[in-house]
Amino acid sequence: MRLPSVKPEGWSQIEERLNSFETRMREVVNNPIEDKRRCEDSWEISKINHQRSRYIFDLYHKEKTISRELYEFCVEYKLVDGSLMTHWKRQGFETLCCSSCIHKANFTFGTGCVCRVPRTNREVKVLECQTCGCKGCASGD
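Structure for G10 protein, as requested:
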Protein backbone atom coordinates (compact mmCIF):
# COMPACT_ATOMS: atom_id res chain seq x y z
CA MET A 1 0.00 0.00 0.00
CA ARG A 2 1.36 3.36 -0.99
CA LEU A 3 1.64 6.02 1.71
CA PRO A 4 -0.08 9.38 1.16
CA SER A 5 2.06 12.44 0.48
CA VAL A 6 0.78 14.18 3.63
CA LYS A 7 1.83 12.31 6.75
CA PRO A 8 0.87 13.03 10.37
CA GLU A 9 2.92 15.26 12.61
CA GLY A 10 5.85 13.37 14.10
CA TRP A 11 6.42 11.18 11.05
CA SER A 12 9.99 12.44 10.66
CA GLN A 13 10.70 11.18 14.20
CA ILE A 14 9.99 7.54 13.26
CA GLU A 15 10.59 7.47 9.50
CA GLU A 16 14.29 6.59 9.61
CA ARG A 17 13.77 3.71 12.04
CA LEU A 18 10.83 2.30 10.04
CA ASN A 19 12.95 2.50 6.88
CA SER A 20 15.71 0.53 8.59
CA PHE A 21 13.19 -2.17 9.56
CA GLU A 22 11.98 -2.23 5.93
CA THR A 23 15.55 -2.58 4.65
CA ARG A 24 16.23 -5.46 7.05
CA MET A 25 12.98 -7.11 5.94
CA ARG A 26 13.99 -6.91 2.27
CA GLU A 27 17.41 -8.41 3.05
CA VAL A 28 15.82 -11.33 4.90
CA VAL A 29 13.33 -11.99 2.11
CA ASN A 30 16.12 -12.00 -0.48
CA ASN A 31 18.48 -14.24 1.53
CA PRO A 32 18.87 -17.86 0.36
CA ILE A 33 17.06 -20.42 2.52
CA GLU A 34 18.76 -23.66 1.51
CA ASP A 35 20.61 -24.07 4.81
CA LYS A 36 17.53 -23.64 7.02
CA ARG A 37 14.81 -25.98 8.17
CA ARG A 38 11.48 -25.49 6.46
CA CYS A 39 9.85 -23.91 9.50
CA GLU A 40 12.71 -21.41 9.92
CA ASP A 41 11.98 -19.60 6.66
CA SER A 42 9.68 -17.04 8.22
CA TRP A 43 11.19 -16.75 11.70
CA GLU A 44 13.34 -13.71 10.92
CA ILE A 45 10.43 -11.97 9.18
CA SER A 46 8.26 -12.57 12.23
CA LYS A 47 11.02 -11.24 14.48
CA ILE A 48 11.40 -8.01 12.48
CA ASN A 49 7.62 -7.55 12.38
CA HIS A 50 7.53 -7.92 16.17
CA GLN A 51 10.37 -5.41 16.69
CA ARG A 52 8.82 -2.84 14.36
CA SER A 53 5.41 -3.15 16.01
CA ARG A 54 6.90 -3.03 19.53
CA TYR A 55 8.85 0.10 18.61
CA ILE A 56 5.68 2.02 17.65
CA PHE A 57 3.66 0.50 20.52
CA ASP A 58 6.23 1.61 23.09
CA LEU A 59 6.50 5.10 21.61
CA TYR A 60 2.75 5.56 21.92
CA HIS A 61 1.75 3.64 25.05
CA LYS A 62 4.83 3.78 27.27
CA GLU A 63 6.93 6.80 26.26
CA LYS A 64 3.97 8.82 24.94
CA THR A 65 6.18 10.55 22.36
CA ILE A 66 3.99 10.06 19.27
CA SER A 67 0.42 11.18 18.69
CA ARG A 68 -2.63 8.98 18.43
CA GLU A 69 -3.00 10.16 14.83
CA LEU A 70 0.48 8.89 13.94
CA TYR A 71 -0.11 5.61 15.80
CA GLU A 72 -3.38 5.01 13.91
CA PHE A 73 -1.69 6.04 10.64
CA CYS A 74 0.93 3.29 11.14
CA VAL A 75 -1.79 0.71 11.85
CA GLU A 76 -4.02 1.82 8.96
CA TYR A 77 -1.21 1.67 6.39
CA LYS A 78 0.02 -1.64 7.83
CA LEU A 79 3.43 -0.35 8.82
CA VAL A 80 2.94 -2.31 12.04
CA ASP A 81 0.92 -5.37 13.08
CA GLY A 82 -2.26 -3.86 14.53
CA SER A 83 -3.62 -7.23 15.65
CA LEU A 84 -0.50 -8.00 17.65
CA MET A 85 -0.49 -4.53 19.21
CA THR A 86 -4.12 -4.96 20.25
CA HIS A 87 -3.24 -8.18 22.09
CA TRP A 88 -0.34 -6.47 23.91
CA LYS A 89 -2.87 -4.26 25.72
CA ARG A 90 -4.56 -7.30 27.32
CA GLN A 91 -3.37 -8.76 30.60
CA GLY A 92 -1.29 -11.90 30.08
CA PHE A 93 -0.39 -11.00 26.50
CA GLU A 94 2.05 -8.15 27.15
CA THR A 95 4.98 -10.09 25.67
CA LEU A 96 3.16 -12.04 22.93
CA CYS A 97 5.50 -12.87 20.04
CA CYS A 98 2.97 -13.17 17.19
CA SER A 99 -0.78 -13.36 16.68
CA SER A 100 -0.73 -16.85 15.21
CA CYS A 101 0.58 -18.35 18.47
CA ILE A 102 -2.70 -17.71 20.28
CA HIS A 103 -5.13 -18.88 17.61
CA LYS A 104 -6.15 -22.33 18.81
CA ALA A 105 -7.21 -23.40 15.32
CA ASN A 106 -3.51 -23.42 14.34
CA PHE A 107 -2.64 -26.18 16.82
CA THR A 108 -3.46 -29.81 17.42
CA PHE A 109 -6.27 -30.51 19.87
CA GLY A 110 -7.24 -26.82 20.00
CA THR A 111 -4.43 -25.96 22.42
CA GLY A 112 -2.02 -23.05 22.23
CA CYS A 113 1.57 -22.70 21.12
CA VAL A 114 4.39 -24.10 23.25
CA CYS A 115 5.91 -20.61 23.59
CA ARG A 116 2.81 -19.51 25.55
CA VAL A 117 3.46 -22.10 28.27
CA PRO A 118 5.57 -20.70 31.14
CA ARG A 119 9.03 -22.28 31.26
CA THR A 120 8.44 -23.53 34.79
CA ASN A 121 5.50 -25.63 33.56
CA ARG A 122 7.34 -27.26 30.64
CA GLU A 123 8.90 -30.68 30.76
CA VAL A 124 11.52 -29.64 28.19
CA LYS A 125 12.86 -26.21 29.15
CA VAL A 126 14.17 -25.06 25.74
CA LEU A 127 11.68 -25.28 22.90
CA GLU A 128 11.16 -23.19 19.78
CA CYS A 129 7.80 -22.25 18.38
CA GLN A 130 7.40 -23.74 14.90
CA THR A 131 5.55 -20.63 13.69
CA CYS A 132 7.90 -17.82 14.69
CA GLY A 133 10.90 -19.36 16.50
CA CYS A 134 9.98 -17.83 19.86
CA LYS A 135 11.46 -19.60 22.88
CA GLY A 136 8.88 -18.27 25.32
CA CYS A 137 6.57 -15.29 25.48
CA ALA A 138 4.30 -16.25 28.35
CA SER A 139 3.85 -13.34 30.72
CA GLY A 140 4.88 -15.57 33.65
CA ASP A 141 8.41 -16.11 32.31
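The chain has two domains: 11-89, 94-141.
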